[in-house]
Amino acid sequence: MRTIPQISEAELEVMKVIWELSETTSAQIVERLTQTTVWKPKTVHTLISRLVAKDAIKAEKTGSKAFVYSALVSEQEYKAYANNSLLQKLYNGSINLMFTSFIKEQKLSKSEIDRLKKLLDEEG
């Protein structure tokens, strides 16, 4: 498995826009994020630059001055990495401890419990 770069929470918001749009310009990313955050356009541009430097996204120059950005790390790859990282950091890699913690701390509905049982039956 290839190395997934460390992505901050703020950078993750940029990644979500790129994953949603597939290919996008910085102007489109800025437009989206300035509607949902208090970030200034310069902040968004800084986050984009960091993601390019980390090889999380690539920038391809178009015919004009604009760049088109696309993900080098897929959403699925990042989620798998983040899940594994959480499991290792908080539960010493034990999925049993993680599930036990979640089940004890969260109130699950009957239908959620039934879905979990069905999933475990299918996987087991």
Word description of this protein:
By secondary structure, this protein is mostly helical. The protein has two domains: 9-71, Orthogonal Bundle (Arc Repressor Mutant, subunit A), CATH 1.10.10.10; 75-123, Penicillinase repressor fold, CATH 1.10.4040. It has six helices and three strands, in the order αβααββααα. The chain has helices at 9-21, 26-36, 41-53, 75-91, 95-105, 110-123, and strands at 23-25, 57-61, 67-71. The protein has a three-stranded antiparallel beta sheet with strand order 1-3-2. β2 (57-61) and β3 form a beta hairpin. α1 crosses α3 (41-53) and α2 (26-36) packs across α3.
The gist of it:
The chain is mainly alpha-helical and about 120 residues long. It has helices at about 10-20, 25-35, 40-55, 75-90, 95-105, 110-124; strands spanning about 25, 55-60, 65-70.
Mean pLDDT across residues:
92
Main beta-sheet strand count, sense and barrel state: 3 strands, antiparallel
Low-confidence stretches: none
Radius of gyration: 19 Å
Task: Estimate percent helicity.
Answer: 55-70%
Number of strands: 3
Give the domain tally: 2
- The CATH class of the largest domain is identified as Mainly Alpha
CATH topology of the largest domain: Arc Repressor Mutant, subunit A
- CATH architecture designation of the largest domain: Orthogonal Bundle
Structural class: mainly alpha
How many H/I helices?
A: 6
Distance between the termini: 25 Å
- Spell out the CATH superfamily of the largest domain: Winged helix-like DNA-binding domain superfamily/Winged helix DNA-binding domain
